[in-house]
Amino acid sequence: MKTKDGKLLMRCLKEIWNHEPQSLLMAGGLAVADALLPLVPALLSWLFVEGLAAGWSFGRLAAIAGIGVTVLFLLNALRGKMYHCGLPHTENCNDLMEWEYQEKTMTMDYASLDSREAAYLRAKIHNDYQWGNGAYFMVPQFQRLCSAVLGIAAAVVLMAPVLMQRSFWLHWSSPVFLVFAVALTGLSARSQNRVFVKTEALRDEYDKKSARSDWLVDNLTYREGKDIRIYRAKSLIMGALRETERDHMVDGESRLEGRAGALDGIISGLLMGGSYVFIVLRALQGALSAGSVVLFASSIYQLCESLKLLARSRSEIFRNARRMESSLDYLELPGLLQDGPRSVGQTEEAVDIEFRDVTFYYPGSGIPALSHVSMHLRPGEKTAVVGRNGSGKTTMIKLLCRLYDPQEGQILMNGKDIREYRYEEYLRMFSVVFQDFFLLALPLGENVAGAREYDEERVRECLEKAGFGPRLARMEKGLQTSLYRILAEDGVEISGGEAQKIALARALYKNAPMVILDEPTAALDPISEYEVYSGFRNLIGDRTALFISHRLSSCRFCDRILVFQDGQLVQEGTHEELQQDRQGLYSRMWEAQAQYYQES
């Protein structure tokens, strides 16, 4: 056992033990039963032969048979009970480990989630699961490994009385047979290990080639069906699914396993044949009694089978451990954002936000997404942020929400560096609607409230304020209506504009001190967007608000407008003030949009 593989196996077993120790305990019990079951018939046969040779009475032999049958019955009954009791624990352990992975994904800070290491591990986990299957495979493999070890020990114990006789080793056949058996066993173990190494290499090669097909399998739903048919993308998609060369991997693995199986069969035949020749030879020489021949033959058979099982189960459990390694590494990923000691406190008052010379680079990028940005969002102020695509608007929002920390400068809330606040408490200060917001395929009310239990009146009120009232009135199940038909047959499809109104209602329901709208109304026409934004100003009252939009006409109701370009804050002021600078970016963007609408 290599040190690395041994340590990895212990990590896997420890993870299973932490979730469901009963599964491993039951597996250990099964291993003991599996090791003992073959011993009973061997011992019975030995006793019968020895008893018949010694002239034992029928009653004595019948009593021995009765005891043996009873022991067999009890062992089989105990084995069956442990198997059926252990299986639910194993399945539950697998579910708990899967939930732990999902919980890690949902709770780790965004910067860690977005890191290259996390992305690589998630992709690897997807492929590893196909062969690893967590505890569902690991526990039975652990049981077989223990059975093999205990079976070897039991066989040695049965042969011990004969092996401990000095006269047994004086004949040349005994050491020759020992060398013969050890050599064949070593050859079998080496063969299994070679298959393991080559199979892992084949699967690693497949993993590297399957990235595109994995994405397609995970992300294609019925909602993409329209585009697939209109653009005749079926051949493209099927080609991407075929290009992984899975058939090549399966054929290669099948050939390897086939050769190993054939060699294993030959080795088993040689070992068993050699064993029986050795036993007969020693019996003819008078070194073994008739009963000992039966016992020795049974013991050697169990020893050979246990050695084969040990080699096979060792390869299998190490293979599965390596497939679980990516999940374990993912769970141990450290957070990149430090949690501060300061409490935000319970406040519904508007907040004061200040950026001081903030510079930020995305991981792996040498170009700053924000460069030396300084700005002040005053309490209760409604501020619009405009700029071309890629100018840094959304990046600024991510930094404000502390999804990332800047490499240079500070972001302050109410005069304190936001890194000093407790992370989870700080996030509760914001109601945000991102441009790439996400709605779950769950009931409408749960989507708005973000919880199973919620205030139905408040949810309806928020949906009405966000402009979703007429659509809600047409839903037969009201707030219990499932969105989309992914999880519910009676789910409803909603348009992009309706989805954005639900997202706005969700921001209203949270009722946080600061509201941020990051282009959430892109699917609305200009008039509807202006109505939503101007109405939203009244809805949020005195709370601090930040609005991002490509349509400059929707920003006129704001107290102040910030203009971003190439990661820098290049202008700020009211609409009227910015219009006076005819060479400024804002004025040029305004004229361009005005001309477009006039021509339209």
What's the structural blueprint in terms of helices and strands?
Blueprint (H helix, E strand, L loop, with lengths): L2 H17 L1 H16 L2 H16 L3 H50 L2 H4 L2 H17 L1 H30 L2 H5 L2 H37 L1 H9 L5 H6 L3 H9 L3 H39 L5 H42 L21 E8 L9 E8 L4 E6 L5 H8 L7 E6 L2 E2 L5 H5 L2 E4 L10 H6 L6 H10 L3 H5 L22 H15 L3 E5 L7 H15 L3 E5 L11 E6 L2 E6 L1 H6 L4 H15 L1
Parallel strand pairs: 3-8, 3-9, 6-7, 7-8
Antiparallel strand pairs: 1-2, 1-4, 4-5, 9-10
Structure description:
There is one protein chain. By secondary structure, the chain is an alpha/beta fold. α3 packs antiparallel against α4, α6 packs antiparallel against α14 and α9 runs antiparallel to α13. β9 and β10 form a beta hairpin. It folds into two domains: 329 residues, ABC transporter transmembrane region fold (Up-down Bundle); 247 residues, 3-Layer(aba) Sandwich (Rossmann fold). The strands form two sheets. A six-stranded mixed sheet has the order 6-7-8-3-9-10, with helices on both faces. Strands 2-1-4-5 form a four-stranded antiparallel sheet, with helices on one face. The chain contains 23 helices and ten strands. It is elongated.
Quickly describe the structure:
The protein has 600 residues and is of the alpha/beta class. The protein has helices spanning 3-19, 21-36, 39-54, 58-107, 110-113, 116-132, 134-163, 166-170, 173-209, 211-219, 225-230, 234-242, 246-284, 290-331, 393-400, 423-427, 444-449, 456-465, 469-473, 496-510, 526-540, 575-580, 585-599, and strands spanning 353-360, 370-377, 382-387, 408-413, 416-417, 430-433, 514-518, 544-548, 560-565, 568-573.
